Amino acid sequence: MQESSYDLLIKIRKISLSSMLFSLGLTLILVQISSNRVSWQIALALVALTIGIPHGAVDHLISVPKLFSLKMATFLFKYLLVTGVAVWFLLQFPMLGFQLIVFCSALHFGVGDASFYQEIYRRSVQVHFPKALYVLASGFTPVLIPLVSDKTKQALETVNPDLVGWAGTFTHQAFIGCLVLNLITVTVLLFRKIFWPAIDLLALLALALLAPPLVAFAIYFGLWHAVRHTARLTLEYGPSIRQHELGKTWQSLWLAVRAGLPAVVIVLGFTLWLTVFSNASVSGNFLWYLLVVTWALTVPHMALTARSDIKALSEKT
Question: pTM for the whole thing?
Fold first, then answer.
């Protein structure tokens, strides 16, 4: 299993980086062709967000391995209850809810990225990995920088005009702070000859600075965070572990992906129902409601994955 899991993590690192850079290149071309039109940005964001949904839909299978049981029913009830409360809160208090989600998501993404590398290094070479610094840089770079750039207003107006000005008077300071944090972390990593995480941070910085904010977040979520998190799920999900033990690396990944696919249909269906039920325009508001549902699902997801993230970060490389 050790060899198969390490092989998968290395390949996913390359795939996520390559797919993100390819998407960034495509985005820059589309920006030149279509100027400031947002229709293609919304379409690309919807695709990337949809790709990212399954990675958080295996929580119940890892937390409660026995599918048909009272314990599973209780777990799902609590999970969906928390999600429902989060949906209500985001719809009732969009500004405060958005601010909380931005901060929590940045920490969640950063911890996830650092845990991903921790899993690699404890299977290969011993390095003095600056975990705390990398958590902050890899989380806040793709989340905060796009949301405090000069292009943010148009993106937020497209999603929900109530979110415009969400950072208040700290917009410029947040941008400079995240930029400096990224470059300091890259410098520390290069000084310690830890090259791949440094390359990742520079790639994430390029995405955050060059891509339209809406597209930048969606690409990161769907083609980076979700892909890497799914690879880590194969280290915990029973059927995937058994495939690793047999040396079937890609089969292990596929089982983790397949387990989360039903969630795509459920989430998209619920989002469509929520949009119609709220008497909103499906074409104009579907993205906002999809983001709300995705963010709401992230709340219990973050709480559950924190356990495995802390475990991974606490292990020595």
Answer: 0.85
Alpha-carbon distance of 101 to 144, in angstroms, equals 11
Report DSSP letters for 237-264, one per residue: SHHHHHHHHTT-HHHHHHHHHHHHHHHH
Long-range contacts of 63-68, Cβ-Cβ distance < 8 Å, separation of 24 or more: 63/304, 65/238
Cα separation of 275 and 27, whole Å?
28
Token pair for 14: 């390359």
Distance of CA 35 to the CA centre of its chain: 27
Q: Tell whether the torsion through CA atoms of 263, 265, 266 and 267 is positive or negative.
A: positive
User: What CA–CA distance (Å, rounded) separates 71 from 74?
Assistant: 5
Place of tokens 């989360």: 260
Residues 6+ positions from 116 with CB-CB distance below 8 Å:
9, 13, 228, 229, 231, 232
Contacts within 8 Å (CB) and 24+ apart, 83-92 = 83/296, 83/297, 83/299, 83/300, 84/296, 86/295, 86/296, 86/297, 86/299, 87/274, 87/292, 87/293, 87/296, 90/292, 90/295, 90/296, 91/278, 91/292
217-260, pLDDT tens digit by residue? 889 988 999 899 999 888 888 888 888 888 888 899 898 888 77
